[in-house]
Amino acid sequence: MFLEPRLKNTSHKKGWIEVICGSMFSGKTEELIRRLNRARIANLKVEIYKPAIDTRYHETEVVSHNSNAVASTPVASSLNILLMSQDADVVGIDEAQFFDAEIVYVCETLAQRGVRVIVAGLDMDYLGKPFGPMPALMSIAEYVTKVNAICMVCGDLATHSFRKTSDNSQVMLGEKDTYEARCRYCFNEGMAKENN
Predict the structure, then answer these.
(1) pLDDT over threshold 90, residue 189
(2) In 3-state terms, what secondary structure has residue 84?
(3) Collapsing DSSP states into helix, strand and coil, what is residue 130?
(4) How many CB atoms lie within 10 A of CB 74?
(5) Sequence-separated (6 or more) residues with CB below 8 Å from residue 92
(6) Catalytic residue status for 194
(7) Do residues 179 and 161 touch, judged by C-beta distance below 8 A?
(8) Per-residue pLDDT band at 71 (split at 50, 70, 90)
(9) Does residue 158 lie within any of the structural domains?
(10) Has residue 162 been placed in a domain?
(11) Whole domain around residue 39: which residue ranges?
């Protein structure tokens, strides 16, 4: 479990970037919500953002697969986050893989301002390839937490999101009817069967 770093009192605010990544159904959003709730308990000003295209569960709330929810602001462009989070101590960003490449600049700018930035997103797409800006975010983050799901085929730890439909667009919002978590072996077996 991630524990927030304890910083010695200094004359300036120190910011940093945390990335929570993994496959579908691994608990990324659940962990994001947990960390944001802890920041609120500490009386910090928390702002939460998500991509405007993510309307699976709710138009404005960030919602985990376990139905835990927290109010958020949907944004069409990552640069909007800079404009809206002027007074925030902590900024949470969900589904970062859906944002444009500028999300890296946004996170770095916020951290430089002294903001704690917590980002959650899929590290790989349905083909098992690095997804959007996530690799760049992981490389600049002070803390990276990779969470695992359980393979729906064999029960081992899952690191991949296997798409159960024939749609081949990289961005396809879905749930358990569309995706399942799989370990590397079961993911590769499933991909091989689809390619035959």
Answers:
(1) yes
(2) helix
(3) strand
(4) 17
(5) 32, 35, 36, 46, 47, 48, 49, 62, 70, 72, 118, 119, 120
(6) no
(7) yes
(8) confident
(9) no
(10) no
(11) 16-147
Cβ proximity of 144 and 49 under 8 Å: no
Percentage of the chain exceeding pLDDT 90: 70
Would residue 180 count as lying in a domain? Answer: no
Q: Where are the alpha helices (DSSP H) in 53-102?
A: 79-84
- Residue 63: phi and psi, rounded to 5, are -125, 130
Write the CB contacts of 105 (distance below 8 Å, at least 6 apart in sequence): 78
Q: Give me the residue label for tokens 């159904």.
A: 25
Within 10 angstroms of residue 80's Cβ, the number of other Cβ atoms is 16
Tokens of 133: 């800006």
Q: Which CATH number belongs to the domain containing residue 62 in this structure?
A: 3.40.50.300
73-127 pLDDT, tens digit each: 999 999 999 999 989 999 999 999 999 999 999 999 999 999 999 999 999 999 9
Strands (DSSP E) contained in the chain are: 16-22, 46-51, 61-63, 69-71, 73-75, 90-93, 116-122, 143-147, 149-150, 157-158, 160-163, 179-182
Number of domains in the chain: 1
Which residue type, as a one-letter code, is found at position 61? E
Are the C-beta atoms of 163 and 169 separated by less than 8 Å?
no
Is residue 102 a part of any domain in this protein? yes
Structure tokens at 61: 């709330």
What are the tokens at 184? Answer: 């590397």
Residues 50-68 as b or e (16 or more Cβ within 10 Å = b): bbeebeeeeeeebbbbeee
Which residue out of 4, 95, 180, 189 is catalytically annotated?
95
State the CB neighbour count (10 A cutoff) for residue 185.
13
